[in-house]
Amino acid sequence: QAPLVESGGGLAQVGASLRLTCVASDRTISLYTMAWFRQTPGGEREFLAAINWRENDIYYTTSVKGRFTISRDNAKNTLYLQMNSLKPEDTAVYYCAARPKGRAAQPEYDYWGQGTQVTVSS
How sure is the predictor about 16, in pLDDT bands with cuts at 50, 70 and 90? Predict the structure, then answer.
């Protein structure tokens, strides 16, 4: 079983919203620092946002700050990414990731999901 499973992707119009969900299969992993990345075909994986277990250390990359919100529900082993004001350039496969410790802004992660496709059309 994959340690992290994403859902919530799909097709959205420009300006619309989507909420991605990532469920950790292991309770221990769900208490790690967790993050969202995205990757376009032929592109590099982009580090978008991260949040630590206590939710007092949160990171956003500039391109999504103010539009995307990362949150978590530790009781449900779940990580979220609320995406608002979607743009065509947000089209990508979105991945969640986790690691045991470290600052949220560090881009190196140990556990990965399989990704969920988000397509924004105009």
Answer: very high
